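Many introductory courses stop at the sequence. We go one step further.
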Amino acid sequence: MRLVFAGTPQAAVPSLTAILGSRHELVAVVTRPDAPSGRGRSVAASPVAQVAAGVGIKVLKPRRPSEPAFLARLSQLAPDCCPVVAYGGLLPPPALDIPPKGWVNLHFSVLPAWRGAAPVQRALMAGDEVTGATTFRLVEQLDAGPIYGLLTETVRPEDTAGSLLARLAEHGAQLLVRTLDGIEDGALEAQPQPVEGVSLAPKVKVEDAQVTWTDAADGIDRHIRGCTPAPGAWTTVGRQRVKLGPVGVRPDVDGLAAGEVAVEKNAVLVGTGTHAVELDMVQAPGKPWMRAADWARGRRTETTRFGTR
């Protein structure tokens, strides 16, 4: 089939790479416009754009996919099908109507669970033991189109949103290519999504990532891992905002009030709504990430309490 691929972040790169190695003809890539990136916030092309340009594939970067010039160019390219992975832009009906075999989305959940922008983060934060990836045909409604295929993935106790997404991106890339093969061969027909089990996964904003120390320790552990690496879990010490890496759950330590910090010889512990958690990595404002023990030793006061909502 003749394809135009749409995607933007690193999580879309395995799918792009898999398509480049498939039997299908990739004629162009659609991605978001260049944007500030990294510590220096210098403007850079998206990961997908960089890979495509590196192998000589045409790259389209519309500000909005509803632009008439983009729609005209897409029509000229005449794709049979448009696979899409984490593109990051809302595709309007005129764009959806261009490829005769539609837009095939790889979504990182087992639909209809976790429809939306942050399925991996929300699955971790909710404590799901199993998640996965789904290929489906895009429709106007959010992640509600009929399903072509799916795979499941066990959530590991140490998983962060970053590590789980990386696995799903790799495994999902193969699912996407198999789906495209089946569509071309006429061996695969999309089936309606179940009407039960729908849950939503809105974007996790910075303000959503604040730790609530009155929550249970297990919930705090999931919350922090779900916010790692982005937007990054955080708490407050006085008026300062401090970022936190994944923590260890310490059911053997009781007696600390929620948000109370205890500095021991080999551990920095924080009270929660149940038992304590043990900090690992901490990032104070304007500082690099450091071990929690080093951070605690560098503070001028002996007592510390984290703010809680």
